[in-house]
Amino acid sequence: MKRLGIISLFVLLFIAFITIWNYSYQTGLEDAYIPLENEITHSSIPSEAGVFKRSEYALDYAKMTIDEKYQRTLETYYDNRAYHGAPPSIPHPVSQEISMGGNTCLQCHQNGGFVVKFDAYAPVTPHPEMINCRQCHVAQNTETFFTETSFAKVQAPMAGIHNALPGSPPMIPHAIQMRENCLSCHAGPAAPKEIRVTHPERINCRQCHLPNAVEYSDKDVFLRNNN
After folding, report:
1. Is 58 helix (H, G, I), strand (E, B) or coil?
2. How far is CA 128 from CA 57, 133, 134, 149, in A?
3. What's this model's pTM, rounded to 2 decimal places?
4. What is the pLDDT along the chain (227 residues), one digit of tens a residue?
5. Other Cβ atoms closer than 10 A to 24
6. Which of 122, 135, 150, 158 is the most buried (most CB within 10 A)?
């Protein structure tokens, strides 16, 4: 009886050893654990999250042949704005005056593409989630009671003048609010040729390009001259 108990003990220990060894072996065959995005959530920085919304088009932009005939220029880009940073005006006729954008504007401006009707490539909006387009964008040619003024446009900032070193990635010379999606203006056939990037597939733009955070210390109280 004693001998039978010892044999049974050794059998149980052997089975336990085989079980533990098999579990350890199978565990060693598993791949490294990669956390899924559903398991870990991070709050995105708005000024950096916009470009990732269109990242699926980045490789298409990189492989796309440039249509020399229909390239936009930076001059026309700025001429379509009352001042630097202003929402661009609508340079074509608007057939449905009651439309606010959700059912009409986004048909061409959500993903861009060539529009035969206007013989041009439609610029891509950096904020397609804001469907109330005509709250900010107005028709360029309208019949109004307004008259000409002496308002002078402020010169648009030049890229590269605040770079730390020659040849370093140019800084972002404009505000990022409402323009979080860099690819909408800097990639694709509708992008102005002067600011079209050569590497849209690199997605994480702000890893190299930083906002121009120049601080001006000389600030005086504004006084209106009534003379």
Report:
1. helix
2. 15, 9, 13, 33
3. 0.66
4. 677 778 888 888 889 888 888 888 777 776 666 665 555 555 556 666 677 777 888 888 888 888 888 899 988 898 888 888 889 999 888 876 656 666 788 888 988 888 888 889 999 998 888 888 888 888 887 666 566 667 777 777 776 677 778 888 888 888 888 888 889 989 989 999 989 998 998 888 888 888 876 554 454 555 666 65
5. 9
6. 122
